[in-house]
Amino acid sequence: DIEKALTEGVKAFEPGLLAKANRGILYVDEVNLLDDHLVDVLLDSAASGWNTVEREGISISHPARFILVGSGNPEEGELRPQLLDRFGMHAQIGTVKDPELRVQIVSERSTFDENPAEFHKKYSDKQHALTNRIIEARKKLKSVQIPYDFRVKISAICSELNVDGIRGDIVSNRAAKALAAFEGRDEVAVEDIYRVIPMSLRHRLRKDPMADIDSGDRVRTVFKQVFAVE
Which stretches does DSSP call E strand in the chain? Predict the structure, then answer.
């Protein structure tokens, strides 16, 4: 805290961004343009739940439990594979091609610009319903089971794809259970794994920093082979 140092002559810690994000969501736009060491700090804090600040004779650790969401345009620069692997899931978002859907998006945006309050009111019931569904899913999550055979097959897929470490295994299991809980079921189905495993693994397949991230086709192909489905 520079102000306290100048006015009172004492060293004091001023909570920063990671402290403010504690128990919340930290969204980083253009995460691929951040310096690698900053991304590393973010990922370490997100994984451990703590951030340590060491500066000018002060060493302080504070809670930093948050969900990290990052976005970026790969054409402007990629994260190193080692850092990319630290993100749990990877979603690809492209431009909408359907003309009718594009018109709908433009119309909705115009409605929002004209009257934001009315726009929020229009979707408030759906938002509350989704919020309640997520709350119920979080309560149910601990009771959701994933068969041992499914866990073995998830690891077999990771092994077949030469995924380094076991983060891919862990995230795939957790994501499948979360989806089952969200849909109100007590046990993970094959379809749950099929829906989440491409997002859990495709960004872990890139060994060459200059290579593109797989679209998910490789993961789906191996999934079908291991689970013997069409």
Answer: 24-28, 50-55, 58-63, 66-70
